[in-house]
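$ ./design --mode recover --in tokens.txt
reading tokens...
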């Protein structure tokens, strides 16, 4: 593997005890007086018979503690002016540890994680009962882990305290990334960008989707990322019009366009990048036209995504460019080429749908608008979850439109998807699916593109692919790096 596609994992940024302590203190500060909050681990999930999916900690517990094991919980109690953070963990168990790895246990939890007390998880119900007996409010979110829900429910029913959702606090905190979190996310972005570059460099018309997937994910792991942040989408030709295509098993075809949407998770934080490129290294005129239109929309949308703007502003900026472009290509009509025109047409359509339903008649065909070819949003928050949380989504806790502010990280990912059988589209564009996605951090006075290392200008992509072709002609091939 080319050295320039390596990102040293040893030098990668990490969280530390001081930062976790600060988070816990901030969390406790935001809790109501005389309250107790409980955050639980994800359950383990069976993959087949007696093997499990690789365990991934619940993002909220990871955020507040960094504790990586299943069957764990955090309890924060704030009674009077006394704050106590307790961790519940699996006990040490030599027999189990021989099979599934070392457990931190109670002593390890106290030593290596930020907490005042640590207990074995079988003491959860007893300790929770004792803590909430002194509290007026309890924060707990049902639905994350049945095992904890059952135990908590019994205790809580006996005490009948006001129940609040801890996510309203944690998710608001998680929306604003600290400098260290941004460093970690920069690193995740760098690794994922290197992976996309490597896939471009090594792709040939003889490659398959799964080989490109293998290249992408080997760069992730080679550089010390923990997981893929979501199932990689590696789609050749018409597969690119399936938004969440993850089969990734088809051979590539000379003349087709690739779409790869793949991101790694580093220290728990996601990157999320989409790139498109021609399988044979040269865009056709039709591919170039659609690709450049999506790129123009994405660049315009990124420009808009600065402090004070909203994610709706970002979406509208991308949509405006795409609408104009589709009209110029003769794909949508003039009357739906503006926001107002599109809104009017879709409103009239909805009315016609309702009227048809009342009469039990056939539903009318939806008018051809931007929505016919760009059917998803432009942005989502990014962080510990790829579709990251943020209280109230695009509204803040007071119900106001959430304005972009330093520390927020979001994606910008417009796309156009023309199915190979879609007769509404000129023939030369059918079978082309393009999405271009970058990760943007709002920083004081500007923004930073965390995924900038992955080429997206047509000339840069073609240059990188030509470089790869020349290396192959001179006898260099992709080598297994393990
Ligand atoms: N990879 C999923 C997304 O872009 O939202
Ligand atoms: Mn995304
Ligand atoms: Mn994506």
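writing sequence...
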């Amino acid at each position: 593997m080319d050295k320039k596609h390596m990102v040293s994992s040893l030098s990668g940024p990490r969280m530390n005890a001081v930062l976790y302590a600060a988070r816990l203190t901030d969390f406790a500060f935001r809790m109501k007086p005389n309250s107790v909050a409980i955050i639980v681990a994800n359950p383990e999930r069976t993959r087949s018979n007696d093997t499990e999916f690789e365990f991934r900690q619940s993002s909220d517990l990871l955020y507040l503690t960094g504790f990586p094991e299943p069957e764990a919980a955090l309890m924060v109690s704030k009674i009077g002016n006394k704050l106590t953070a307790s961790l519940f963990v699996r006990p040490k168990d030599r027999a189990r540890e021989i099979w599934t790895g070392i457990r931190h246990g109670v002593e390890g939890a106290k030593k290596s994680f930020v907490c005042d007390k640590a207990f074995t998880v079988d003491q959860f119900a007893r300790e929770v009962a004792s803590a909430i007996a002194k509290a007026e409010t309890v924060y707990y979110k049902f639905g994350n882990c049945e095992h904890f829900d059952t135990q908590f429910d019994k205790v809580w029913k006996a005490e009948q305290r006001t129940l609040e959702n801890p996510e309203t606090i944690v998710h608001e905190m998680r929306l604003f990334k600290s400098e260290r979190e941004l460093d970690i996310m920069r690193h995740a972005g760098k690794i994922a960008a290197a992976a996309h570059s490597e896939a471009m460099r090594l792709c040939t018309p003889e490659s398959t989707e799964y080989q490109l997937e293998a290249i992408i994910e080997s760069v992730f792991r080679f550089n010390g990322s923990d997981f893929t942040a979501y199932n990689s989408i590696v789609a050749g030709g018409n597969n690119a019009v399936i938004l969440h295509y993850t089969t990734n098993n088809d051979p590539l075809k000379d003349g087709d366009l690739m779409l790869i949407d793949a991101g790694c998770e580093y220290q728990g934080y996601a990157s999320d990048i989409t790139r498109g490129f021609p399988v044979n290294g040269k865009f056709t005129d039709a591919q170039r036209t659609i690709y450049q239109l999506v790129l123009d929309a994405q660049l315009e949308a990124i420009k808009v995504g600065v402090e004070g703007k909203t994610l709706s502003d970002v979406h509208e900026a991308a949509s405006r460019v795409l609408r104009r472009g589709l009209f110029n290509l003769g794909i949508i009509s003039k009357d739906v080429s503006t926001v107002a025109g599109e809104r009017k047409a879709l409103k009239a359509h909805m009315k016609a749908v309702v009227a048809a339903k009342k009469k039990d008649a056939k539903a009318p065909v939806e008018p051809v608008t931007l929505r016919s070819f760009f059917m998803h949003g432009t942005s989502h928050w990014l962080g510990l979850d790829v579709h990251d949380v943020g209280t109230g989504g695009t509204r803040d806790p007071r119900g106001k439109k959430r304005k972009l502010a330093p520390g927020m990280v979001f994606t910008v990912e417009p796309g156009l998807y023309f199915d190979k059988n879609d007769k509404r589209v000129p023939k030369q564009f059918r079978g082309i699916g393009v999405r271009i996605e970058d990760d943007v951090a709002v920083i004081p006075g500007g923004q930073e593109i965390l995924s900038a290392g992955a080429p997206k200008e047509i000339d840069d992509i073609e240059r990188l692919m030509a470089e790869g072709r020349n290396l192959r002609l001179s006898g260099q091939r992709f080598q297994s790096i393990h």
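exit 0
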